[in-house]
Write a structure and sequence with these properties.
- The chain is an alpha+beta fold.
- The chain has one domain: Cyclophilin (Beta Barrel), CATH 2.40.100.
- Helix content is 16%, strand content 38%.
- Strands 1-2-10-6-7-4-3-11 form an 8-stranded antiparallel beta barrel. A two-stranded antiparallel ribbon has the order 8-9.
- Strand 8 and strand 9 form a beta hairpin.
- The N and C termini lie close together (5 Å).
Length: 151
């Protein structure tokens, strides 16, 4: 189980080891030590909570292959998208993005085009209401801290 700990709530996501075994294994290993990062509301992808793992500490995640790659995530899906340095316009650093799609009509279309992400986990149905409230709070109140860990 992947756990997202916010100040006001906790979201649990079931890993999908059948669809994305390499992604699940790599993230499980990387998150054995919990990491706290900033989560923001995404700009281009619709109802998405977006967070980046520190690339310097987790450079092995850049080797995660595309698997279960999708461009139209559904509500509750969690995507992982690793990008090498200089791939994202304006960024010199690698990007290790984890996105939680908290509503319908999500898409992975960016100013540079479509960018598929690995669908590796899903927020459990019991946490969907909290997930939606957290997504709205990012719009209304801005970025927040979130701690990611494997339970």
């Amino acid at each position: 189980m992947l756990v997202f700990e916010f100040a006001s709530a906790e979201l649990h996501a079931r890993l999908d080891t059948e669809l994305a075994p390499a992604t699940c294994a790599a993230l499980t290993e990387a998150l054995r030590t919990p990491v706290t990062v900033r989560v923001r509301h995404a700009m281009f992808t619709g109802p998405e909570m977006s967070m980046q793992l520190p690339a310097a500490q987790h450079s092995a995640l850049l080797a995660v292959p595309p698997e279960a790659a999708i461009i139209m995530p559904t509500e509750g899906q969690v995507l992982f998208t690793p990008l090498a340095a200089h791939v994202w316009p304006g960024s010199r650093e690698a990007i290790l993005d984890i996105g939680i799609y908290y509503g319908p009509y999500g898409r992975t279309f960016f100013p540079s085009g479509w960018l598929a992400g690995n669908a590796f986990a899903r927020i459990i149905p019991e946490h969907h209401q909290q997930m939606k409230e957290l997504g709205r709070s990012l719009i209304e109140h801005g970025a927040q801290d979130v701690t990611l860990r494997i339970a």
